[in-house]
Amino acid sequence: MAEVWEMNYDNGSQSDDSYHFERRHIEPPFDSFICPLTKQVFRDPVTIENGQTFEREAIEKWFRECIDTGRPPICPLTSKELKSTDLKPSIALRNTIEEWTARNEAVKLEIAASSLSPNSRENDALHALKYVQHICEKSKSNKHTIRNAGLIPNIVNLLKSGSKKVRCRALETLRSVAEEDADNKEAMATGDTIRTIVKFLSHELSEERELAVSLLYELSTSESLCEKIGSVNGAILILVGMTSSQSENILTVEKADKTLVNLETCEKNVRQMAENGRLHPLLTLLLEGDPDTKLSMATHLGEVVLSNDVKTFVAEMVGYALVEIMKSGTLQAREAALKALNQISSCEAGGKILVEAGILPPLIKDLFTVGINQLPMKLKEISATVLANVVSSASNFEPIPLGPDGQTLVSEDIIHNLLHLISNTGPAIESKLLQVLVGLTSSPTTVLEVVVAIRTSGATISLIQFIEASQRDLRLASIRLLHNLAPHMGQELADALRAAPGQLGGLVRVVTEARGGIAEEQASAAMLLANLPIRDSGLTRSLLEEGAFRAIILQIKELRRGETRGSRFVTSYLTGLVGILTRLTFVIGQDQEALDLAQEHDLVGLFSEHLQANGLDEVQRLSAMALENLSAETRKLTNIPEVPRPGPCGVLFSCFYKQPEVMGTCPVHLGICSRRETFCLLEGNSVKKLAACLDHGNEAVVEAALAALSTLLDDGVDIDQGVQALCEAEAVGPMLEILKEGKTEVLRRRVVWALERVLRSGEVAAEVSGDAAVASALVDAFRHGDYRTRQVAEQALRHVNRMPNFSGIFQKMG
C-alpha cells in the first residue's frame, strides 16, 4: 500500500510533507493543469492578454517585478510585451481541476480509510494519518469530508496501536480534525474516545502526554463537551496535577491550565477541581455567581476536605462573603454558609481571619435567638461548632462588640447565656459550647472574667455533672474546662466534687481506665485532679476511699514498664498521675491508710525513679516535693534501738565504760531505716538523684530538690552526718552555685538556710571561706533578705569568719 503514496519530485520542489501530499496523485494531472511558473497544479488559474494561463498569485508577482525593474510587462512564456496586465479567471479550467482533484481526493480517502486500522503496517498508517492531517490543515471544508467519510472512528482506533509513532500521529491528526470544527468534536467524543485520550495524560512518555493534552484542550473549547471530559474518572485530577508539576514541559503545563479554564464552564467540573485542590474557580463563582450558583458553591465548599493552608487561603478570599450570607441569606443559604465556615474556621489562622471579618456578632445572635426566628437545632449546633473553632484561634475577643450595648464575648451576661444554653440544649450543642468556654479559659486575658461569671451564675455543680455524661465529647469538654478553672477556683471545684454523689469516683474512673492507650480524656482528667488544692486533706481522704491512689500507682508502674500504649498525651497523663499521687504524701503523718499505702508500694523508690524523667520538668518537681514530704516523716518512723544500761561495774567505773555500738543504724536518723518502711533518702539512694536536680534549668525543680535535701539537715537528725551525705552526693557545690546566682528570693532563702547548716562543718567552712563570691552572696542575703533570712545569713557569715562572734545585732539562734 505504501507505493500508492510514492511521488516524483520536480526540480525545485519543496521537501515538506504538505507539498509531498500535494504532489501525490492517483490520476496524473494534464499538462494544462500545471502552471508554467509554479510548476504546480492550478488553484486559481487566470488568462492574460495573449491567452496564456498562469496561477494568479504567480503572474501578479511577475508583473510587479517587471514594473519594479522599469521594464514593460511581458509574457513569461513568449517574452513579448503586453499592452495590458488585466487578468481573466479561467473558470472552466478551474472547474475541471476541481473535479480532477475531487476524484483524486476520493480515491485517496478510500486508500486512507483502508490504512487507518490497528492492523495496518506502521508506514501505511503514518502516511494515511499525515494525509488526513494535511488536507484538514489545507481546507476547513475537508474536515467535513473526513467526518462524512467516517474516518474519525478509524483514527481514534489507532490510539490503541502498538506503535508509539502511530499513536502520536493519531493524537496530532485528531487535533487537526477537531480544530475549529464543532461537529467533528462531537463526533470524536462518542464512545470512550475521551477516556482513551485521558489515559495518555498519565503516560510515561512525555510526547504522548503533550499531544494528548493539546487534543483535550481543543475538545474543551466546545462547551457541550466540557461536562463529558470532566465526567471521565481522574481527568480533572490529572490535569490539576500537571499544572503544578515541576517536571512537565512548560507548554504542556500551560495547555493543561487552559484546558481546566475551559472546563470551568461546567459547575460539576468546578466542584471536582475544588476536591482536587484547585479552589479558585469555586471561590470565584461563590463571589461572583448568581444566588443559586453561590448556594451551590458554598454547599460544596462545606463538603470539601481542606488542608490548613488552604483553609487560610479560603478564609482570606471568601470569609467575608460567607459571613454576609450567614447574616442575611435564606435559611438554605445560611446553612450552606455555616457549613463552609465550619470548615475554614477549624484552623487557627482561618479562625482569626473570620473574627476580623465580623463573624462573632451573627454567631452569638444565631445561638441566643429564640422563638419564631430561631435557627433549627442542627444549625445551632454548627453555629456552636464555628464559635468553638474561632475561640480556639487565640484571637483577642475583649474589644469586639457583639451588639449595640457594647457587650463582648467575655461579658458576664454573655457567659451567663452560654451557661444557660449548656444546661438546656442537647449533648451535641452542649459539647461545642463547653469547648467555647474551654477556649476562653485557655487565655490568661479572659479566664478570670469567665471564672467570675461562673461563680455568679452558680454553675459549678452543673459543669461538674457533665463528668458522668455518656457522650465522650461532652465529658472531655467538661473535664478540659474544669482543668482550666482549677488554678483559679480549685477549692470550689474540690468541694463540689466531694459534695456531688459519684462525680469524684467518675473522674477517677476516667483517669484510671486507660484501655487501648491514653487518650486526651484520661490526660485531662489526671491533670484536673492534680491541679486541685494539693493540701486539701478532705479531698485526699475521699480519693483514698475511692481507691484512687492504688489504681494510680498501678498506672504509673505500667507506664514505666511500657505496658500502656503511648500517644501524644502520655506526658500530660504521667504528669497528672504523679501530681495526684504527690498529694498522698501530705497526709501520711496523719492518716494510717495513706502511710500503709506509701509503705506497701515503696513510694520513695517510685518517686526517685521519676527524678530522672528528663524533659518532664513538672514530673521531676512533683517527685522532689513528694520525697521532701516522705523524708520529713523518716524521723518519726525510724526505730531508735535501745542501748543496754551499764552494769554495776560500769556505773562505778563510768570513766572507763565504753557504750556499745548498735550495728545497722542510719547515721543521719540514728535508727533502723529503710527505703520502704521509713522513707529514708539515704537507704533509697535518692540523695544523688536529688543532687543532680540542683543543676536543673527549671528553678521550680531546683527549689523542690533543695527542699528535699534539706530534710537531711533538719533538727532532730545528725546534721554532721547529713552534711557528710550531701558532700558524698556532690550536692554542696551546686548549692553554693545557687547561692551565688541568687535567681529568686525563695531559692535564696532556702539555700541560705541549708548552707548555714552545711557550714557548721569546720572542714566545709574552711574550704568555702576563701571563696569571695560565696561571702559576697551571703553578705547580699544579710543586707537584702527578709528578717529570717538575715538571721540565718549572719550565722553563715560567722561560720566563714566574715562576722564577729560577739555581734548582738540579731537575737542568737539556737
TrEMBL record:
Keywords, comma-separated and alphabetical: Transferase
Keyword Transferase: yes
All copies of domain U-box, residue ranges: 28-107
GO terms, molecular function: ubiquitin protein ligase activity
GO biological process: protein ubiquitination
Catalytic activity: S-ubiquitinyl-[E2 ubiquitin-conjugating enzyme]-L-cysteine + [acceptor protein]-L-lysine = [E2 ubiquitin-conjugating enzyme]-L-cysteine + N(6)-ubiquitinyl-[acceptor protein]-L-lysine
Transmembrane segments: none
SUPFAM superfamilies to which the protein is assigned, alphabetical: ARM repeat, RING/U-box
Pathway: Protein modification; protein ubiquitination
Signal peptide: none
One Pfam family named in its UniProt record: U-box
Record's protein name: RING-type E3 ubiquitin transferase
Organism: Amborella trichopoda
Source species taxonomy: Eukaryota, Viridiplantae, Streptophyta, Embryophyta, Tracheophyta
